[in-house]
Design goal:
The chain is α+β, with helices and mostly antiparallel strands. The protein has helices spanning 27-32, 76-81, and strands at 41-46, 49-54.
């Protein structure tokens, strides 16, 4: 399971369950957390409470499909601060 638990708590008003079982997360909170259409959540029951835990996408590694040459591994100090 991914994600870490944030122990801070802040209230953003109420959400009402509609006839189709849907909740609307308040816009202020969606904006603060950069929640976009299609964001997935795990729904967790904790006693009589319900928690929504955002599922973060897996990180992807992108490559150019080329082999690295020796020049790609120059000393970071020289690359950053110039040669001697």
């Amino acid at each position: 399971m991914s994600g870490t638990s944030d122990t801070t708590s802040e209230e953003y008003g109420t959400a009402q369950l509609n006839h189709r079982g849907r909740l609307t997360i308040p816009k202020e909170l969606r904006d603060e957390l950069n929640l976009e259409d299609g964001t997935e959540f795990r729904v967790v029951r904790d006693g009589s409470d319900i928690r929504l835990v955002r599922e973060l996408p897996d990180l992807e590694t992108l490559t150019r499909g080329e082999k690295w040459g020796d020049e790609a591994f120059r000393d970071a100090g020289d690359a950053t601060f110039g040669g001697r």
